[in-house]
Amino acid sequence: MGKSPFIMFLVIAIILSPIVLMIQNNFVYSDSPFLTPQYSSVRVDQILVKDFNYSSNDNIYIIASGNYSQILDKLNNSLHYLSPDSKLITPYEYLKMFNETLQNYSKPLIEEIYNKILPLHYLYGNLTFEKLIILSNFTYFMYQLNVSYGIPQGKFNSSSTQAVLFKQIFFAQPGSLLEKARNASLYVFRDPFILLFSFMNYSNTSLAYRTIMNFSNYSYLIYLLTGKSIPEVALENPYVYSEKLVYSKVNTSGLSISNFHKGDQWLFIVQVPSNESLQNIENFISSINYTVTGHLPVYADSASTTESDLRVIDIVTILLVAILLSVLIRALVPIILLIISAVIGLEIAYTALYISTFLGYSIYYISGLVIPPIVFGITIDYSVLFLYRYFEEVSKGSTFPLDKAYRNARRAILFSGLSIGLGFLSFLISPSPLLKNIGIALVIASLSALIPSILFMKSSLSVVSIKYLKFPRKQLPSSIDIRQQYLSKVSRKSINYRYIVLASMILIAIFSYFVFIHGSTNGDISEIVSPNSKVLVGEKELNNFFNYSVDYVIIRGNPNQSYSQIYSLSKYVIDKGGFVIGPAGIGRTLLNTTTELTNFFFAGNYTLVEIYISSPVFSNQAINFTENLIKMGYLVGGANAERVDIIDNTVSIYYSFVLPVTILIITLYLGLVLGSIIVPIRLSLTLLLSSLFGVALLHIIFGSVYWLSPLIVFAIMYSLGIDYDMFIIVRILEEEGNEEERIVKSVESTGLAVTAAGLILAGAFMSLVVSNMRFLQEIGLAVGLTILFDTFIVRPILVPAVMSILKKYNWWPKTKTKS
């Protein structure tokens, strides 16, 4: 073959290395790129912008200690790190803005109360004027009293028109004597002051005069006339009274300067566009050196943690893999070639990802982080398979050992690689934007391993002499060692005790499934940042300050028709310690009936209710509260709702669509290639066992785990786990003898490659444990232990036991054929 291909690969490795070093700059940490109108939270945001003229902004919360003026100056001086649209809001400005908002929404309530009091105010004015008229012509008033209370008792008689009319009305009415007298008097004389007297006190002129002269309780008189109890101050100045009444009720959110100032600590808020650059936020945070938290600072901190973790993970992966290779192969040059092969695979994968960004692809940071262990593991797995095939052919004295090893290894590698790629294909056809994104990275990672493991290994082995491959040993690394004796012994034992093995594994599967369905997951920000993160410190400290996050609830239709529903929602929020701004409530004040305020929150056939949750954004309490609102059937928007939508939608689609389709694709593909229905079904079931075992371990070790961790374990095991089984199956097809002997021989002959590959892949994932992010620690440990379980328990013990039970039916409907 010559040296040219080998040199070409080395040149490519050098050329592509800068992309690997800078790829992290292209990672996306926010969920925003994956939020589409299929999510209700996105539809709510669109309604807010279109119908209610809301702007799309996020808040950065800054907790600073020291002198107020100095803090303010420092923050203003650092604002240039953020976009020009960013705005610093001081504690006093926020309180002013908030109170003005409440006051603006209070105006319709004030007008409504004022309009109700206004007729009584006019009545009050008329009564004060009437009092003056009475005092100026008191003789006539005494005449009214005599007619009103004297005639009914027969103590006064008059033939005046008014007296005659009074008698007609009096005798025509039902009721008590006093009621009939007063009603008839009001009808004839229309003087409310008559009501201050009765049959017992009407005839004493001096008493009557003093009563009128000293009278001031107009509220009482108006109550007698209208049945409405109104304080005097409301009658005198109804608008001022209405203002005070409304403000005293609606300004009960509990917000005051104490929500922004504790001891020498101050809480400031910086409002930024929702698409603010995370690098800008990181620069801003670094420049002020205060405690910062919020929606975007969480992602910025996660980006910073990921950047430092990625360097450490790559180094640890290489070191760990090198140590494992040293133990397994114990020859320097093959180890170097294997590591170079893995590095080339990683460079190809990251280059492909980088190129895809020009086609609109966003590299989700999780997609970028899982690539190194996958590529390192798969590439070295395949390369080890090729290498051992080559060593085996050389040891047998084959003519053209490299060509023969290349043909045999290439078939197994391509077969396995395509199986893995197809396993990840279900992600690409998923309706979940996030799963599609991760799927693209997984497919690229799996396919990137094929080029170096086949072509680079062939080109390198063609130019490296056998004597160098031995160094420092005197002989080539043997394809037969003590591990094969162990695997042969174990596989024979498992065949002898096949039913006990099968029963034991079924029990493990049942236990694992029980743990899986009862295990809890979370979307806690502590999973995606360092445990010592200032963002976490800020979230805890924020509980002592203004610790509210906002949900926006949209209800279709006219609020007058759905008022009872709006009222119930508002009451629910207030009862839970939050407050609302909406048709049925302002602050913590509930409005029992529709008011003039109702229409202020109605636009485009939608009603808006702003809900202030008494927990910081992304906190477990805020997420749970928002999730409850969604379960109650409301359309909810805001950062919390977006988070809930992403998590619920992704998890639901994975288990209801992606995982079943993955199993179906792998089963159909292997069935077509192998001509067997049983082998693919058996393989899928054993992969399910390994995956369930891994997720069960995840919950047992960590308790509540990050919501993506179980999905990643399933995804990786259901694709990468195909490798080792297929190595065994392909070898069985090459072996002669009865079914059980072929099974034992295949486990024995592939044992070295399978165990080496399993240890290396497990080691590659275990490197994630050194991360500062608990989420990556969960994935690394769970996948690593699951691969070891699959490598040393499922493949050498369970697979031989099951295949020995099935015997010739393994290959049904075909019989086994030699490839």
Folded structure, characterized:
The chain crosses the membrane at residues 310-329, 336-357, 363-391, 412-432, 438-457, 497-516, 653-678, 685-705, 711-730, 751-773, 779-806. Keywords: Cell membrane, Membrane, Transmembrane, Transmembrane helix. Residues 288-458, 656-815 form the Membrane transport protein MMPL domain. This protein has 819 residues and is α+β, with helices and mostly antiparallel strands. It has four domains: 4-35 and 296-482, Multidrug efflux transporter AcrB transmembrane domain (Multidrug efflux transporter AcrB transmembrane fold); 101-250, no CATH class; 488-527 and 647-811, Multidrug efflux transporter AcrB transmembrane domain (Multidrug efflux transporter AcrB transmembrane fold, Up-down Bundle); 541-645, Alpha-Beta Plaits, CATH 3.30.70. Helix content is 67%, strand content 8%. The strands form four sheets. Strands 9, 10, 11, 12, 13, 14 and 15 form a seven-stranded antiparallel beta sheet that branches. Strands 2, 3, 4, 5 and 6 form a five-stranded antiparallel beta sheet that branches. Strand 4 and strand 5 (265-273) form a beta hairpin. It starts with a helix and ends in a 13-residue tail after the last helix.
